[in-house]
Amino acid sequence: MNIYMLGIGGIGMSALARFFNMRGDHVAGYDRTPSQLTRQLEAEGIAVHYDDNPEKIPHKVDLVVYTPAVPSSNLEFEAIKKRGIELKKRSQVLGVLTQDKRCIAVAGSHGKTTTSSMIAHLLHHSGVGCSAFLGGISKNIDSNLLVNNNSPWVVVEADEYDRSFLQLHPHFAVITATDPDHLDIYGTHRNMLEAYAQFANQTVDEGHLWIKRGAFIVDGKPFISDSKTDSSTDVLNFVQASHSSYSMLDTADDCHAENIRAQKGALVFNLVTPQCIIKNIEMHSAPMVNVENAVVAASVALACGLTPEQVRNGLETFAGVKRRFDCRFRSTDVVYIDDYAHHPNEIESLIGSVRTLFPDRKVTGVFQPHLYSRTRDFAQQFAAALSRLDTLVLMPIYPARELPISGVSSEALLDMVSLSDKHLCTPDEVLQYIDHNRPDVLLTIGAGDIDRLVPHIEQLVKGGQG
Fold this sequence. Notes:
The protein contains 15 helices and 23 strands. The strands form 5 sheets. The protein has a 7-stranded mixed β-sheet with strand order 8-7-9-6-10-11-14, with helices on both faces. Strands 18-19-23-20-21-22 form a 6-stranded mixed β-sheet, with helices on both faces. Mean pLDDT is 93; it is low at 228-235. Helices cover 32% and strands 24% of the residues. α8 packs antiparallel against α9 (308-316). It is an alpha/beta fold and 466 residues long. It has 3 domains: 2-88, 3-Layer(aba) Sandwich (Rossmann fold), CATH 3.40.50; 99-316, Mur-like, catalytic domain (UDP-N-acetylmuramoyl-L-alanine:D-glutamate ligase); 326-463, Alpha-Beta Complex (Protein-Tyrosine Phosphatase, Chain A).
């Protein structure tokens, strides 16, 4: 089969490209700019080009897969529609690839990449096995793709953007968080929750759903789906599937942790589930939020048939995900952590974890806002979260699929941040700032192309060790 991919360098698209290439299909694609991911795809034999040129679309194409991040004004997108080639969104393709498998789908406004990667690692490490399409690069396999044709399980990150997750009908499903996001698509938080409710109810009859405590609480009140006709105030009244609640520490939840403590550079805790209690699990180099992710990942793994000892061993060997609390360098003098956080709550959590791990040290954050609409919708929350830093270096907004919005800019956001030590910098100026100021604890934060600075920053930080 000849497959062409528009936006092939995206993290989810590149996993599909790798899958098709491994299957023996002929794969080619377009992306706006080269990146480490596209260079890896090219090294694997996939042809990628970077100019929007319809003449570079292969003559023979059976299927075009595209991401909503590619604007409709893209010349190649228009040419493909005129040629009448079959055109599918990435989410539609994932729906097809998982329909005959036992799909484990992890959804949520944050936490889904780490949780899905953790589940995939637990299954893979135990020998139960799985295929997986991940939204990040798992450090254990140095990839965003696992393929195991002998296992019925397939783990996918269920993306809420553009209601993509509604293409999935999972056997097991997880909802990690439902903070307002993508309001350019949904309009209101309530509309977004309706989509999550629909996703929850697409769990198959014999399956199970895990929901984080508070995911369907709005302004302190239970969310009631429009599809529910009675006046029940049970927070999960609309969920038809068998389901469990989970949290980090709340003993009222079906799945939770207890006795969390730091011990020799690791977080140690007991896991409590309806099936069993697993004591003294160790997770290394993990932020506190990963205990919560581990609670639900372990619960799913137990439901897949893993033993408690397999769960323990899997969690203790989980190396994390690149760009998720990714410690790039650490010495006695400097710490450098890179993180994909692009929602105010994620940034708040990131800075809080850093403050816990490195108390009394000065924290500098380099942040690249992602999307004009998100920056507009959550400007006050972004400003509050970023004000928890000691020093802020703010980059211009990464537009992705969007055109500029009048009055929305990094300059306007910077004015709202209460710090006195704050700076607006281009990418080149960021490198100069770090070289001249040598931060104590340094964070790079954002979901745009800030990741392209990471190798250069890492070299600067290492070079200052002397």
